[in-house]
Design a protein that fits this description.
This protein is α+β, with helices and mostly antiparallel strands. The protein has a domain of 26 residues. The protein is built from 1 helix and 2 strands. A two-stranded antiparallel sheet has the order 1-2. A hairpin with a 2-residue loop joins strand 1 and strand 2. The longest helix is centred in the N-terminal third of the chain and has 10 residues. The relative contact order is 0.22.
Length: 66
């Protein structure tokens, strides 16, 4: 049996305007290696919370090459 680890479309944050607002006005909590970015807003009746989730891991090395 295959497990589905995705959010339904109605729960995904797809609006560019809301995504920009999330990063401009939202709050964040950081616990390595995760950062939770959130924006509290009142829910309309029968409205599902919207979720935007992605992960990018970058490693920066400084110093001279081999």
């Amino acid at each position: 049996m295959k497990v589905n680890y995705t959010f339904p479309k109605k729960e995904r944050l797809t609006s560019k305007k809301l995504t920009e607002e999330l990063f401009k006005k939202g709050s964040s909590v950081y616990l390595y290696p995760f950062r939770l970015q959130f924006l509290q807003s009142p829910l309309q009746e029968r409205q599902a919370p919207q979720v935007l989730f992605f992960g990018i891991q970058t490693l920066l090395q400084t110093g001279s090459g081999p």
